[in-house]
Model the fold of this input.
Amino acid sequence: MDGMKKIGKFLQNCVELYIPIAAFLIMFSVFVIQIVARYVFKNPVQWAYEVTVMGYLWMVVLGACYAYRDRSHVTFTLVYDSLSVKGKAICGFLGNLLMAVAFIAMFVPACQMIGQMKIQVTSVFKIGLNIVYLPFIPFMIIILLYILYDMWLEVMVFTGIGGEAAVKKMLDGTKNETQEAIEAAMEQEKGKEAGKS
Done:
């Protein structure tokens, strides 16, 4: 079972981290090649723009999955932060429900659209646009799985079934960087005070 978890985590990291990192490195390298070719050798390469756009698309779409997992996307939590734990769970559940419905509703049409794009090709490499837009499919699946997991956790909290463990897990998952920095500073102060006495 532990081996399966490691394999799953590796595959998750491949899609959410390693492919976007590779796409960024390729995109950046080609960008530099294009600048050198254009301004130093006065001979721009035709394929650079195409590779840069494809790299950017793959990086952003798959990188968004990691941003969701890491909770590093932008959130506006003024109202959410003022709610009780149960209120946060209900509010989060309703927001996630809206997103889940939207992702489920667009899944089949998006897959059909991407499938139909194989007849269109890029101008230089003649790669089907279905390959270019392919990362949108795993993006939808991964984000939907994260949303469903969050909804399950929120149900465990607002029904009380999950107990304190579910509350702690939900609250830890919704902490922003400022809250984490404040908690780390407080822990550091406690450590200093304990060291003095």
About this structure: The chain has a mean pLDDT of 88.
